[in-house]
């Protein structure tokens, strides 16, 4: 089976079992592109942005058993609010890797200010250059957010999961496993891969050489969670309503 996996650290526990199963072919990519691969039949299963599961519910089968979820901190999705420029911003440069994050930052800015900003999906390298120059407000996703640097005199940086939790009191699902109908796999298919990843969590931690092991362990075992809770479901339903009301869906 061809399985599209997210190439960032935040998804490793979910995908580790598939990556170590010779019976599968794994294709690593950003979740925004994996949705396109899935609809075009280039992969059988993909870990895709949760908003794309909402947008394509008529053609996709989605597992609501596991996903990339966070409550008070996701760490790897950050909004860089420029304190030197007017707020709310008219346009936000957004990392083109996650369409859920693009929508979420628009929803949160709208809740806070009443203004729905435009977003411009952009190569994260360009966003990092803009942050270094202190120009504009931006969103970074995944490893690009984990390793971002900024001047705190210019930028107030907000964790999108923490911001969402402050506003709604619910946690958030950023990515879900999906397949194109009529293919519908049992939840156990995805749960088995997660169980393998959690059983071998120290291997995942040791494989990540760019960050201190204690930070990676906290990130993967405490800040993120992967089995979907009632709070996650409630958060996704609320996010869907916001997006629908604002015309984002």
Automatic annotation (TrEMBL):
Sorted alphabetically, which Pfam families does this protein's record hold? VitK2_biosynth (PF02621)
The protein's matches in SUPFAM superfamilies, at most eight in alphabetical order, are given as: Periplasmic binding protein-like II (SSF53850)
User: Its GO biological process terms?
Assistant: menaquinone biosynthetic process
What Enzyme Commission number(s) apply to this enzyme?
A: 4.2.1.151
Known pathway? Quinol/quinone metabolism; menaquinone biosynthesis
Keyword Lyase: yes or no?
yes
Which family does the record assign?
A: Belongs to the MqnA/MqnD family. MqnA subfamily.
In terms of HAMAP family, this protein maps to: MqnA
This protein's name = Chorismate dehydratase
Native source species = Leptospira fluminis
């Amino acid at each position: 089976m061809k399985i599209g996996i997210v190439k960032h650290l935040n998804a490793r526990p979910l995908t580790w079992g598939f990556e170590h199963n010779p019976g599968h072919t794994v294709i690593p990519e950003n979740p925004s592109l994996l949705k396109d691969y899935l609809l075009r039949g280039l992969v059988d299963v993909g870990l895709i942005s949760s908003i794309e599961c909402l947008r394509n519910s008529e053609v996709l089968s989605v597992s609501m058993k596991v996903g990339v979820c966070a409550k008070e901190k996701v760490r790897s999705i950050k909004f860089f609010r420029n304190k030197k420029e007017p707020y709310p911003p008219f346009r936000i440069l957004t990392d083109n890797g996650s369409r859920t994050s693009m929508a979420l930052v628009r929803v949160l800015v709208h809740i806070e200010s009443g203004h729905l900003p435009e977003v411009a999906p952009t190569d994260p390298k360009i966003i990092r250059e803009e942050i270094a120059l202190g120009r504009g407000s931006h969103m970074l996703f995944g490893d690009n957010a984990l390793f971002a640097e900024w001047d705190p005199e210019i930028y107030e940086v907000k964790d999108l999961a923490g911001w969402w939790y402050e506003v709604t009191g619910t946690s958030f699902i950023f990515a879900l496993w999906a397949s194109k109908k009529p293919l519908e796999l049992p939840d156990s298919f995805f749960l088995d891969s997660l169980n393998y990843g959690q059983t071998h969590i120290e291997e995942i931690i040791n494989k990540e050489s760019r960050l201190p092991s204690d930070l990676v362990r906290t990130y993967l075992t405490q800040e993120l969670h992967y089995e979907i809770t009632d709070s996650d479901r409630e958060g996704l339903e609320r996010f869907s309503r916001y997006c629908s009301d604002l015309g984002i869906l």
